[in-house]
Amino acid sequence: NYKNFSDLREKLQGVLRTNISLTVTEVDVLLAQPEPKTRADFLKYSRKITLDPNTAHTQLLLSATNTKATLLSEQQTSSHPDRFTECYQVLSKESLTGRCYWEVKWKGTAVYVAVAYKNISRAGSWIECGFGFNDKSWALYCDKKNYIFFHNNSTKLVSGPQSSRIGVYLDHSAGVLSFYSITGPMTLLHKVQTTFTQPLYAGFWFYTSLGNKIEILKLK
Fold first, then answer.
1. d(CA 206, CA 87)
2. Least CB-packed of 63, 127, 151, 189 within 10 Å?
3. Residue numbers of the chain with a pLDDT score lower than 50
4. Which residues form the B30.2/SPRY domain (predicted)?
5. Which tens digit of pLDDT belongs to each residue from 175-189?
6. What is the pLDDT of residue 175?
């Protein structure tokens, strides 16, 4: 419907000017938002997260609400191409971008609280598919005495108050991932500053002891 190329060029330039204006506005708004400091600040970014049954290892039993998982001895479910077959792992159904905060309560011997890209390997060795042992995932190992951070097969011993409740804060665009011990007050355990190239998914890797459990807590 354009009479000549000049009309089309003006239309395109108008669209570009509008998009640039919107982009600058969005950046200004983002820059104006300070990093959360208090628990109330973090709760503003709380996200409802559920576990994806199609990714859960066959020995993981999920609750009806897909917010709890327990490691059992017998297999529970059928095969699926998205399912982890070697490690006792599960990913969230929801992809995570922007600013997100969630908390998990764990019980048992130990658990890895993680985030991962969706294209992490589902099979192969634990170096390929285990959370924290490749460049597609970041994980905090928690037991009753220690915290250890894992990424791309590198490790860092982390100090902090022991807790069965762990908070995770993600600012995807800023490349920030933080883990907190929740013992009443929040204590920063470890903070990652990197560049995320894909949407992330919350993940959990269960230690081999049967009966280990996790629960994604309802915060709102």
1. 8
2. 127
3. 1-9, 11-30, 32
4. 29-220
5. 999 999 999 889 999
6. 97
Q: What is the pLDDT of residue 126?
A: 85
User: How far is 164 from 157, CA to CA, in rounded Å?
Assistant: 17
Write the single-letter amino acid at 10.
E
Confidence at residue 11, expressed as pLDDT on a 0 to 100 scale: 38
How many residues are recorded in the chain? 220
Task: Note whether 168 and 104 are within 8 A (CB).
Answer: yes
How is the chain classified by DSSP, letter by letter?
--SSHHHHHHHHHHHHHHHHHHHHHHHHHHHHSPPP-SHHHHHTTB----B-TTTS-TTEEEPTTSSEEEE-SS--S---TTS-SSSSEEEBSS-B-SEEEEEEEEESSEEEEEEEETTS-SSS-HHHHSTTSSTTEEEEEEESS-EEEEETTEEEEE-----SEEEEEEETTTTEEEEEEESSSEEEEEEEE----S-EEEEEEE-SSTT-EEEEPP--
- What the block records as the tokens of 163 is 């807790």
Domain boundaries of the chain, sorted by first residue: 1-32, 33-217
Please report the pLDDT score of residue 76 as a whole number.
Answer: 74
Quote the tokens at residue 57.
Answer: 């290892």
Distance CA 201, CA 77 (A): 21
pLDDT at 120: 97
pLDDT at 149: 98
